[in-house]
UniProtKB/TrEMBL annotation:
Belongs to the CarA family. This is Carbamoyl phosphate synthase small chain. InterPro entries: Anth_synth/Amidotransfase, CarbamoylP_synth_ssu, CarbamoylP_synth_ssu_N, CarbP_synth_ssu_N_sf, Class_I_gatase-like, CPSase_GATase1, GATASE. Residues 1-169 are annotated as: CPSase. L-glutamine binds at residues 45, 218, 220, 246, 249, 287, 289-290. GO terms for molecular function: ATP binding; carbamoyl-phosphate synthase (glutamine-hydrolyzing) activity. The lineage of its organism: Bacteria, Bacillati, Bacillota, Bacilli, Bacillales. The active site is at residues 245, 330, 332. Its EC number is 6.3.5.5. NCBIfam families: CPSaseIIsmall, PRK12838.1. Small subunit of the glutamine-dependent carbamoyl phosphate synthetase (CPSase). CPSase catalyzes the formation of carbamoyl phosphate from the ammonia moiety of glutamine, carbonate, and phosphate donated by ATP, constituting the first step of 2 biosynthetic pathways, one leading to arginine and/or urea and the other to pyrimidine nucleotides. The small subunit (glutamine amidotransferase) binds and cleaves glutamine to supply the large subunit with the substrate ammonia. GO terms for biological process: 'de novo' pyrimidine nucleobase biosynthetic process; 'de novo' UMP biosynthetic process; glutamine metabolic process; L-arginine biosynthetic process. It is an enzyme of class 6 (ligase). Signal peptide: none annotated.
Length: 363
């Protein structure tokens, strides 16, 4: 079946459908990872976006239940150069096309993803509409006039509180669009993890008597989540905080810094990041379209701890006096190397230190 993509600049791509039928509008972004399409599709941070994979062959190892990063995909579509209809992998349970159909995602193969990626890099991310129907160009342009969603976090966050019991530190995970691997990393370190909705209050969190609070990744503009900013402001100094991706941006806003939309963002599994205190470079997985502005950090109690080597953007923050650390990238992801896992250990050390200080003060 023929499928089409129309960008807001008027560029029209025609390819072949391999997912669900229908029409969807979303922000067109690209990801440079060579593998991991299932994890990318099920990362809630892609809510409302249409993903272009720059690697030319997608679908060749199929889909495995254990590789999901959430219970379902939240992206609006997938664009690839070549779709492998028949998967070859011992873990394969179903094809990528079948997976997309099950969740109503449109997939388009056979388009020039190299040209599309270059266009996004030059102009920046833009809105697009994908369709398997026979709409006229005028009808597709009309679809592009609809406003972009701004409630992505509310769509992907858990609606209830749930717990992963364990014997170690108690961590409350505020779910702005959390990936399963965040919970896995904490559970592997014997943490008890209580996952809560994005709009929970600081008072409700503190009733759990947590040893630390994890601020998860998530989709969209951090300024569209004022509830999270207020909660973080009330938690600072009362409990150790660790923010990842959107959580990192929300901490910056809570401390008085600012964020801005990037031209085309960072999405992929090969982004080099430098830790300023050690000079060490790590290869990271990233997925974000907004960044903390470096100049805005200067007049706050935060200091920059990590920078992206590709463009110099802020990749990590630390509070000067309070137990708060953040990173823009995803230490729970493993894009090949396991370079960033130490950050979870650092979070545990921060919780231990905070607990010792509390015991000393109460003695």
């Amino acid at each position: 079946m023929k499928a089409r993509l129309l960008l807001e600049d008027g560029t029209l791509f025609t390819g072949t459908s391999f997912g669900a039928e229908g029409k969807r509008v979303g922000e067109i972004v690209f990801n440079t990872s060579m593998t991991g399409y299932q994890e990318i599709l099920t990362d809630p941070s892609y809510c409302g976006q249409i993903i272009t994979m720059t690697y030319p062959l997608i679908g060749n190892y199929g889909i495995s239940r254990d590789d999901n990063e959430s219970l379902r995909p939240y992206a609006h579509g997938l664009l690839v150069r070549e779709y492998a209809e028949y998967a070859s992998n011992w873990r394969n349970e179903l094809s990528l096309g079948t997976f997309l159909k099950e969740y109503g995602l449109i997939g388009i193969a056979g388009i020039d993803t190299r040209m599309l990626t270059r266009k996004i890099r030059l102009r920046g991310t833009m809105k697009g509409v994908i369709t398997t129907g026979n709409e006229s160009p005028e009808e597709l342009k009309e679809a592009l006039s609809s406003p972009m969603m701004r409630d992505q976090v509310a769509r992907v966050s858990t609606k209830s509180i749930h717990i992963a019991p364990n014997v170690g530190k108690r961590v409350v995970l505020i779910d702005f669009g959390a990936k399963h691997n965040i919970v896995r990393e904490l559970v592997e370190r014997n943490c008890e993890v209580i996952t809560v909705p994005y709009n929970i209050t600081a008072e409700e969190i503190l009733r759990f008597r947590p040893d630390g609070v994890m601020l998860s990744n998530g989709p969209g503009n951090p300024k569209d989540v004022p509830e999270g900013i207020r909660t973080i402001q009330k938690l600072m100094g009362k409990v150790p905080l660790f923010g990842i991706c959107l959580g990192h941006q929300l901490v910056a806003l809570a401390a008085g810094a600012d964020t801005e939309k990037m031209k085309f963002g960072h999405r992929g599994g090969n982004h080099p990041v430098k830790e300023l205190s050690t000079g060490r470079t790590v290869i990271t997985a990233q997925n974000h379209g907004f960044a903390v502005t470096a100049d805005s950090v200067k007049n706050t109690e935060l200091e920059i701890t990590h920078i992206a080597l590709n463009d110099g953007t802020v990749e990590g923050l630390r509070h000067k006096t309070l137990p708060v650390i953040t990173v823009q990238y995803h230490p729970e992801s493993a894009p090949g190397p396991l370079d960033s896992g130490y950050l979870f250990d650092r979070f545990l050390e921060m919780m231990e230190s905070f607990a010792r200080k509390g015991e000393t003060m109460n003695a």
